[in-house]
Structure formats: structure tokens, C-alpha cells
Design goal:
The complex is a heterodimer. Chain A is built from no helices and 10 strands. Chain A is mostly beta strands. In chain A, the strands form 2 sheets. Chain A has a 6-stranded mixed β-sheet, with no helix packed on it. Chain A is globular and about 35 Å long. The mean pLDDT of chain A is 97. Chain B is mainly β. In chain B, the strands form 2 sheets. In chain B, strands 2, 4, 5, 6, 9, 10 and 11 form a 7-stranded mixed β-sheet that branches. A 4-stranded antiparallel β-sheet of chain B has the order 1-3-8-7, with no helix packed on it. The chains are: A mainly beta, B mainly beta. At the A-B interface, strand 5 and strand 9 of A face strand 10 of B.
Chain lengths: 107, 120
């Protein structure tokens, strides 16, 4: 199985800050990576697919980059409604796996 | 508008079989490339992919749970059913079904989730 390692596991930032989350795959997954946002008690919401493509309706302050094994997710200016846990997931070869999540809090 | 909703028991006993139904609308499981997958999340923990079934009845399972999982579809009812045998307290989780885009493994629409607790 391909292991997805996210860092950090949690972070605290101020409103307006730039926030960056990293996701590393244990082997080359090309660009087959998604990023999800999950708020407490809610289902995950797809934000980014194919590593850097913004899902329709998702604010442009969210972005993703990377390919191969190293990926980055960025919130350019943190907003109060962005408080959530963020997960990466690869969809290269089966089985598809998720990172352990990054909890984003307000400082 | 694509929607999915999970239904099933909220409490099962150890060794019992869990049966969950995903009822969806806004798409057809007869459409080329479309699939419905199941993902679970134990309380406070990360997401885990379980299984997926495609329009052509191809099915794939998590290797760690393959011997315990079954997935079927009923296109006349727009439903997908997941069964997990020999339930254990570690299977306590919120179970989600999700629409899989033709890319395979790209889960773009999710149900609200169903919390299943395993306890005697």
C-alpha cells in the first residue's frame, strides 16, 4: 500500500495568515492526489483534485501543487470558516489511502 | 444535483454482520465509468477507504478487509449495499458512501455519514 504522510498534524494561525500543509507519498503517484476539508460532524468536502485543480465553487484562496511524491496545500489568507481538518488522499493504484489529517486552528 | 445518503443500524453487537445502504440521486450507476465507494472514519481518527463498485459491476476492496466485505448495487433502486461481517468494537466508525468520478478513486460527492457503534 502507498502510505500518505501529512505534516504538520496540527497548526495554529491567525486570520489572514498563509497556511501550508505538506503531504508525502511513499512512492510516485504522479498527480493523482486530492485534498479534502472536513469540519466537525460533517462529511469531507473535495477541494482539490489532480494535485492542483480547484473543484468548482471552491474559493481561490485554496491551492495545491506538487507531483510524484511531494505535495503542498496552501490557504493564501486564512479565514474563520477555514477552521477544519484537511486530508490528502491518493487515487493512483489500489488501495487508495488518506493522510492522517492536519487540524487547522485559529491562534 | 448529486446526493447520497447512508442508512442502517446505529448499534451492532460483536460478531454480527453490518449492512449499510447508500441511496443516491442525481446520477446513474449505469453511466460509463461511474462508481460508488465506501469510506469510514473511527471517532477522532483518519479516513479509511473500504470498497468501490462501478457501473460495469467491477468491485474493489481494501486488502485488509477484503475477506469481510461485500458490495452490491441495485440500479433500479439507485442503491448500493455494503456488508461487513464479524463486526468488532474497532469497527466503530462513521461510514460514508461517496460518488466516484470516472477517474476512479476520486470521491467528489459524499453522503452525510452514518455512525455505527459496535458494542455488546
Amino acid at each position: 500500500d502507498i502510505q500518505m504522510t501529512q505534516s504538520p498534524s496540527s497548526l495554529s494561525a491567525s486570520i489572514g495568515d498563509r497556511v501550508t500543509i505538506f503531504c508525502q507519498a511513499s512512492q510516485d503517484i504522479g498527480s493523482y492526489l486530492t485534498w479534502f476539508q472536513q469540519k466537525p460532524g460533517k462529511a469531507p468536502k473535495l477541494l482539490i483534485f489532480l494535485a492542483s485543480n480547484l473543484e468548482t465553487g471552491v474559493p481561490s484562496r485554496f491551492s495545491g501543487s506538487g507531483s510524484g511524491t511531494d505535495f503542498t496545500f496552501t490557504i493564501s489568507s486564512l479565514q474563520p470558516e477555514d477552521i477544519a481538518t484537511y486530508y490528502c488522499q491518493h487515487y493512483d493504484t489500489l488501495p487508495w489511502t488518506f493522510g492522517q489529517g492536519t487540524k487547522v486552528e485559529i491562534k | 444535483q448529486i446526493t447520497l445518503k447512508e442508512s442502517g443500524p446505529t448499534l451492532v453487537k460483536p460478531t454480527q454482520t453490518l449492512t449499510l445502504t447508500c441511496t443516491f440521486s442525481g446520477f446513474s450507476l449505469n453511466s460509463n465509468g461511474v462508481g460508488v465507494g465506501w469510506i469510514r472514519q473511527p471517532p477522532g481518527k483518519a479516513l479509511e477507504w473500504l470498497a468501490v463498485i462501478y457501473w460495469d459491476d467491477d468491485k474493489y476492496f481494501s486488502p485488509s478487509l477484503k475477506t469481510r466485505l461485500t458490495i452490491t448495487k441495485d440500479t433500479s433502486k439507485d442503491q448500493v449495499v455494503l456488508t461487513l461481517t464479524n463486526m468488532d468494537p474497532v469497527d466503530t466508525a462513521t461510514y460514508y458512501c461517496a460518488h466516484s468520478a470516472p477517474a476512479g478513486g476520486l470521491f467528489d460527492y459524499w453522503g452525510q455519514g452514518a455512525l455505527v457503534t459496535v458494542s455488546s
